[in-house]
Amino acid sequence: MELRQLYYFVKVAKREHVTKAAEELHVAQSAVSRQIHQLEEELGAKLFLQKGRNLQLTPVGSLFLKRAEVILADLERAVMEIQEFLDPDKGEVRLGFPHSLGISLIPEVVAAFRKMNPNVNFRFRQGMYPSLIQDVMKGDVDLAFVSPYPEKHAHVTGQTVLTEELFAILPPGHPLSGEEAIDLSQLKDETFVLFSDGYSLRPIVMDACREAGFAPRIGFEGQETDTIRGLVAAGMGVSLLPEMALQGAGKLQPAKVRVRSPRVTRTIGLIYRSNEKLPLVAKAFQRFLLDFFACIESKNRM
C-alpha cells in the first residue's frame, strides 16, 4: 500500500467523482482510477459503488476513510514538525528553568529573542534542579537553565552563562538594614527563612553560613522566591537571595544588603542533551542566549 493511494482515495471520497478528483490532483483520470483499483485489490474489498454519475462509499469505504484521514493528518503534522525542526525562523523552543529565573530573566530574554524571531513559539517548564535535569535527559525540553551548573554529567552538557551574587535580605527596620555591606557572621543569631530541601539555593546558603562559622537556625521554609522574600519582609527572619529574585512588585519588600565576607554566588548554566543535535530553532536560541549573557558579563567587568 502506498501513501499516494491513500491520498487519491481520500480525494475521490471527498469529491465523490474520479474526474473531479483527478482535476484537483492535476493527474490523469486513468491514474486515479488505477490507484483506487489497486487499493481495492490489496484490501480485498470494494470501497466505492457507482451512483449515477457519482461514486458512493461502501460501509467498508466509510470505515477506511476515517483511518486514512488520520494517517494523512499525522503525516502532515510530522512533515510540519520536521520543517520546524530544520527552520530556525519558526517552530517551538521547549525551555526549562527554576522559579527564581522566571520573575524577570526569562521574560526578558524570550521577549528580546522574539523581536527578531516573531514566528518562534515557546513552551515552558518550571522545576527544581533534579527535575530539570530529568526533563532534559528525557527530551521533554530542549534547553534548561539550572543552578548550579553540573560540571560533570553523563547525559547533559552545556556551559555556565552567568555567575550571580547573593545578597542578604533583612526585614525593614532591621539594625543592619542600613549598612552598605555586612559580614555573614553578623547574622549568626538570626532566624533564617530558607528554601525547602531539593532547591539549589538552600545548600548554597547553608555552605556560606558554615564558611562564616555558624549553622543557620531555620525558622521557616518555602518553595518560591516570592514566599521567601515576603516572609523576610514580614519580619519572620533573614535570608540570602540572588538579585534577580528580588525584583518584583509588592507592598512589603525586604532590605537588601551586600554580603562582604564570604562572597556568596551561584552559577547558572544552560544545558542540553549530550551527543544529540538541537533543533535548529533551539540552536538559534542557544546562540542568542550565549551572546546575551556574554554582553552582561562584559558590562559587569566594566
Could you outline the blueprint of secondary structure elements for this entry?
Layout: H1 3-15, H2 18-25, H3 29-43, E1 48-51, E2 54-57, H4 59-86, E3 91-97, H5 105-116, E4 120-126, H6 129-138, E5 143-146, E6 156-170, E7 181-183, E8 191-195, H7 201-211, E9 217-222, H8 225-233, E10 239-242, E11 255-261, E12 265-273, H9 280-301
Parallel strand pairs: 3-4, 3-5, 7-11, 8-9
Antiparallel strand pairs: 1-2, 5-12, 6-10, 6-11, 6-12
Helix pairs in contact: 1-2, 1-3, 1-4, 2-3
Description:
- The structure is a single chain.
- By secondary structure, this protein is α/β, with parallel strands linked by helices.
- It is built from nine helices and twelve strands.
- The strands form three sheets. Strands 3, 4, 5, 6, 7, 10, 11 and 12 form an eight-stranded mixed β-sheet that branches.
- A hairpin with a 2-residue loop joins strand 1 and strand 2 (54-57).
- Helix 1 packs across helix 4 (59-86).
- It is elongated, with a radius of gyration of 30 Å.
- The chain starts with a helix and ends with a helix.
- The mean pLDDT is 89.
How does the overall form come out from the CA principal axes?
Answer: elongated
Could you estimate the helical fraction of the residues in percent?
40-55%
Topology, number of strands? 12
Judged by helices, strands and strand pairing, the structural class is: alpha/beta
Helices, by number, come to 9
Largest sheet: 8 strands, mixed
User: What is the first-to-last residue Cα distance?
Assistant: 67 Å
Beta content comes to 15-25%
Please compute the radius of gyration using only Cα atoms. Answer: 30 Å
- List unreliable stretches of 5+ residues: none
What is the element string, with H for helices and E for strands?
A: HHHEEHEHEHEEEEHEHEEEH
**Mean pLDDT, as a whole number?**
89
